[in-house]
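Dear support,

We are seeing what looks like truncated structure output for some complexes. This example has two components. We would appreciate it if you could run it in full and send us the complete token output so we can diff it against ours.
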Amino acid sequence: MSEFDQLYREVILDHYKNPRSHGLLDAPDVQAEGQNPLCGDEVTVSLRFDGDTISEVGFEGRGCAISQAATSMLTELVQGKTADEVARMPKEELLDEIGIPLTPVRLKCAILGLGVLKVALHKGKGTPLPEEWAGADDLTIT
Amino acid sequence: MDDMSVTATTALDVERVRVDFPYLEELQGGKQVAFLDSAASSQKPRQVLDAMSRFYESSYANVHRGVYRLAERATEELEAAREKVRALLNAESSREVIFVRNATEGLNLVAYSYGLNSLGPGDAVLVTELEHHSNFVPWQYMANRTGASFRMLPLDDNGELRLDRLDEVAGDDAVKVVAVGLTSNSLGTNNPVEQLAEWAHERGAILVCDGAQAAPHRKLDVQALGCDFLAVSGHKMCGPSGAGALWGRAELLERMEPFLLGGHMIRSVGDEVTTWGALPHKFEAGTAPMAEAVGFGAAIDYLAGVGFEAIEQHERALVTYALERLGELPWVTTYGPPPEKRAGIVSFNVEDVHPHDVAQILDLDAVAIRAGHHCCQPLMRKLGVVATNRASFYLYSTAAEVDRLVEGLHRARRMFA
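Here is the complete output from our reference environment:
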């Protein structure tokens, strides 16, 4: 596999060009947004719950392929899981899914959606935030 | 293209220049790096690195005050570097040249020492939509702290300043400070600082000029510009990181409060009150970036040896060529003025491909460009984009590197189309 294919494997480009769960939900139970000022990536995530389970996810955003594709992949990962499960989900789980080597700068692009999602869960269900995002109402990754 | 149009219009022998730059000996995937990010920071010629090594090996001690020969030699070298900066900027006296870490620190010095102490309600600071955050945020902050108003001069669609709107933007407030960059780091626009200085002085304001993007590429003359302060970064002009300079008019510097307090900047320290040292020492608290200043001086010698006119011509030819090549691509949008009004900087976007993805794909071919907001978020908002790609050229850049950039853009486009 060439360096390029490693970096932008087909699945990433597919999620970027055809994002899943794209568009914010009408009347969501909770919504959060975040930015990565470094690349100007923006992601907003809206959620609906069925009890403690995430029943629907919708996101909007603009930014680089990694940030948007990763958020799209994330929506597939978390649908049907409980708020607690997702709040405890380590970022490695998403990174495994993305499956490409990421430099520290691009890593921030990749985990933006996850951070915003955890902030939304925190707002909606009071789940704990990861230490690095403690106290966040919305998320800015710097 | 071969180098025909470049070599035909300039005396700069780029192949000879490139021999001086060790970064070109480090291959990436078997290729020399096409380093098109000099506006962020330039590469360093061996002459600068050698000058710093020599200083550390043979003349190193803390400057001033020391009575032994090593300290004397170190002081002489530091002051020789100051004199080189003075000559570079055509300042009247080296007393007016203050060593700082970089242009940002120089501009903060002015904002704190001059702005904080002279602004108040009813006053205004006027900046431009083109400003780098370094000449924008300190003034916005000082305006907010002092109750002064903060005004922004808009751009036209070419990325040039709307001088015709100066009076209107200033309004009825007493404009005390006009802050403007000589060359935009995003669009490459060369701004009419002379005219702005004249306007500022008519209103009783000072003009604070960010020279960081201009000083590497053309010979500056603070007296001809008519500005009151000018800040430059050594690292953008072949010098090491950590050394820059602020020039200011002596009569203003003398009236100003100090910025950093501590050793070396004092005249006498009493139990209750301290008095300040003479210029430039009043603004140079603590141990100076000595080796860095020596390297900065060596960089000035190096650039002067190549010739600023030759450098400027070389870059103009490259930026003209780059705009021409990018203009052939219907899926590329370039920003900013025509080549004759800009420095060697091109900001652009590739349709449907985020700049970070573009930059990453180019890096696979060892082409280094910058992607992001370039510390110009107000300008990005004006352009209606979140980020751009930016290629910037310097004395070691070649037309072949522009070709590699264009090839890489085709590749990015193919991947994302």
